[in-house]
Amino acid sequence: MINIERTLPAPTSLAARKSYRNQDVVDALAIVFKGKCYLSEKVFDSINEMEIDHFLPQNERPDLVCEWSNLYAIDNKANKCRPKTIPDGGYLDPCNPEDDVEQEIIYAVEFGGTVDFEARNAANLKAVNTAELLRKVHKDLKIAVQRKHHEVVDAVAKWYTAKKTGNVEEALKQQLLLKKLLSRDSHYTMLMRSIEVVRHLPPDFFD
User: Fold this and answer.
1) Is 90 left (phi over 0), alpha (psi -120 to 50) or beta?
2) How far apart are CA 3 and CA 94, in angstroms?
3) CA 2 centroid distance within chain
4) How far apart are alpha carbons 174 and 158 in whole angstroms?
5) What DSSP state is assigned to residue 116?
6) How many CB atoms lie within 10 A of CB 17?
7) 184 near 190, Cβ under 8 Å?
8) Phi (first) and psi of residue 160, to 5 degrees
9) 3-class DSSP state for residue 94?
10) Most-buried pick from 87, 104, 151, 154 (CB within 10 A)?
11) Which of 3, 72, 42 lies closest to 148, judged by CA?
12) Alpha carbon separation from 92 to 1, 126, 146, 151, 178 (Å, rounded)
């Protein structure tokens, strides 16, 4: 998960409070959530893959069904994994500045694509619940995460080699690639940033 700033105002169609599925809502959510699922960080191949999640479920808060601040972009599989009731303590909210999802969760990925998530503070029930939810959401993403992991590690290795041999052009090429792969607009940002060799890259590689 990445921290999200809801930069756009509520789409005009929500004022009627009749539907949250209108095209202006879909388009706005795609922009705000950088074209990817707020839970899995999987980038949608097309906007048609995006579903709309209610952070506070409809069955618990029917008054928020058409509330802009309660609508989130989500992948179909992640939406099916997400419980329809909120556990005691709730979840971290990536749109809430007080819930720093990039820092309050420890992200980990192995070379084979196995991932794990842990609350940085076990007393933070929101973080504990969120880590458990992320484990469920990522169960079917091992191959995709593995592929991205290999791509990132390969680019890091080529960048270091180019720097060591003085190949300026190749170093710049790999630097640009890594900035793209590690961007908040990319697949599985926080998992990729947790890779050991990535953590030692210069700060300007990260947006």
Assistant:
1) left
2) 5
3) 5
4) 7
5) E
6) 11
7) no
8) -60, -40
9) coil
10) 104
11) 42
12) 10, 5, 26, 29, 28
